[in-house]
Amino acid sequence: MTDPVHPMATSPAVPAPAVSEAAGHPVPVTDPAPVTASATEADTAPAADPTTAAEVISSGRALLGIELGSTRIKAVLIDPAGTVLASGAHAWENRLIDGIWTYGLDEVVSGVQAAYAALAEDVRERHATELTALAGLGVSAMMHGYLAFDADGELLVPFRTWRNTTTGSASAMLSEAFGRNIPLRWSVSHLLHAVLEGEEHVARIAHLNTLAGHVHELLSGRRVLGIGDASGMFPIDAATHEYDERLLDAFAGLDAVREVPWDLRELLPRPLVAGEAAGTLTADGAALLDPTGALRPGAVMAPPEGDAGTGMVATNSVRPRTGNVSAGTSAFAMVVLESDLPTAREEIDLVATPAGDAVAMIHTNNCTGDLDQWLGLLGEAAALTGAQVDRDELFRLLFTAALDAPADADGLLVYNYLSGEHQTGVATGRPMVVRPEGVGLVLAPFLRAQLNGAFAALAAGMRVLLRDEGVVCDEMFAHGGIFTTRGVAQQVLADALGVPVAVAESAGEGGAWGMAVLAGHAVARAQGDGAALADHLAQRIFADLELTTLAPDSEGQAGYARWLDRYLAALPVERLAGELIV
């Protein structure tokens, strides 16, 4: 899913990975590849003292976070205060096979190994030492989806990612039975879909997992899951921090599952809150992660989390009335709730923070992917002139030019749907640019429409949450490469949501860093430190973080609202395009 390092604690000398999830950080205009690079774990924050960093690494006190995002597997090494010591990444991409968006599990293992190898090489180059031991380790990945295994641990069907939208009937059945929205991408929706379709493998299912949980099991031998990620498999009871027993019974009572030879309780991994013991890196796990044999086992492992959970950690958005936006290939907004929502809304997912508190989530399948491609096209056009435009400068110019246009983009509409968009009821994606009769194609309004479109589905869902449901959010913290150019996408988002938006000095990538921070919290708890996650973040990680906050502009907010009204009204055109254009 979305994939956005923590901006506060990076080193300018750490090399940038070649590919990332989110638009906003430039690539050379002479590069024919798609423009998908974003700010990395190492862009702007002060570097750790080399001597101290080397000593932290060589003494085995460093913490590792790994995140498997939609287009990049990232590894970030930090010290206990959150300072990034090294990073590594590996590019990968999902494939559409027989109508299913998937990744091969062999690609999962090789990709994690490649990201770790790049990290280990970065350690050698930057700190003249070898990475042989870790204090803590955590794995995060895109949430939800469907990984079903038999009793021998063999995958029964190819991994079905969050991007698949074939589970509509199952999702609707579960939402009605449970009295709350159960999204298409949740594991239980995929499971019931397989049952309803009479798929042969259903009778042989021994356990289910998420991608993060699967990799964690390979490294630790433990089949457990962070509660945030678990809440995207099946609803969680906020009081008990376990799967909701009433809803488990409701699932078992469905006519469709009366004949299956298993109880859902037996299939799901055990949920754990942040800081709970989730095992240690085993000898087999160390050998899998580092086939060279240099890495020793024994690191404390944090409960594996989804990218939404690490996004909350990376933005210190784990207390009630705080929220965060993670913008990448997909996008989601998370608002920590003060109390339960009074009504069930299909636009709103109810999930949990890594500490188990209730969260309202607005999720969209599409965000920066189409924008990436348009920026790549403009970069190719610039390259044809022979111009050697600095990549940072090119993106700064393009993004800044958008602010020269009115907030309603002169009526231009952009539908950035590379895939279907459940948030707006669009089954299959057909990217479109639509302009009213008599309106010319001018660069600034075009770019403004692109930015408006990147956040449109998210803004539609947040309108329901904040306006219709009356949820209060004092401030949103945003991260993702689209925010790298200061004050542009950040202002557009503030105007779109009607909420102040805070961004740290560099907002490029947060998930792997957030997972490393969760590993540090797990180590502290294992050593007898009883601090809750919110206190650990506030006192030890974010105490000195500098943020830039932009409030909604009255004119910009009104202009975006007009634009969004037109966007929503014209959605039937986008739906029709999906039916007619094949």
From TrEMBL:
<keyword id="KW-0808">Transferase</keyword>
<feature type="domain" description="Carbohydrate kinase FGGY N-terminal">
    <location>
        <begin position="63"/>
        <end position="285"/>
    </location>
</feature>
<dbReference type="Pfam" id="PF02782">
    <property type="entry name" value="FGGY_C"/>
</dbReference>
<feature type="region of interest" description="Disordered">
    <location>
        <begin position="1"/>
        <end position="49"/>
    </location>
</feature>
<dbReference type="GO" id="GO:0008741">
    <property type="term" value="F:ribulokinase activity"/>
</dbReference>
<keyword id="KW-0418">Kinase</keyword>
<keyword id="KW-0119">Carbohydrate metabolism</keyword>
<dbReference type="InterPro" id="IPR043129">
    <property type="entry name" value="ATPase_NBD"/>
</dbReference>
<feature type="domain" description="Carbohydrate kinase FGGY C-terminal">
    <location>
        <begin position="324"/>
        <end position="522"/>
    </location>
</feature>
<dbReference type="GO" id="GO:0042732">
    <property type="term" value="P:D-xylose metabolic process"/>
</dbReference>
<dbReference type="InterPro" id="IPR050406">
    <property type="entry name" value="FGGY_Carb_Kinase"/>
</dbReference>
<dbReference type="InterPro" id="IPR018485">
    <property type="entry name" value="FGGY_C"/>
</dbReference>
<dbReference type="InterPro" id="IPR018484">
    <property type="entry name" value="FGGY_N"/>
</dbReference>
<protein>
    <submittedName>
        <fullName>Ribulokinase</fullName>
        <ecNumber>2.7.1.16</ecNumber>
    </submittedName>
</protein>
<dbReference type="Pfam" id="PF00370">
    <property type="entry name" value="FGGY_N"/>
</dbReference>
<keyword id="KW-0859">Xylose metabolism</keyword>
<comment type="similarity">
    <text>Belongs to the FGGY kinase family.</text>
</comment>
<feature type="compositionally biased region" description="Low complexity">
    <location>
        <begin position="7"/>
        <end position="49"/>
    </location>
</feature>
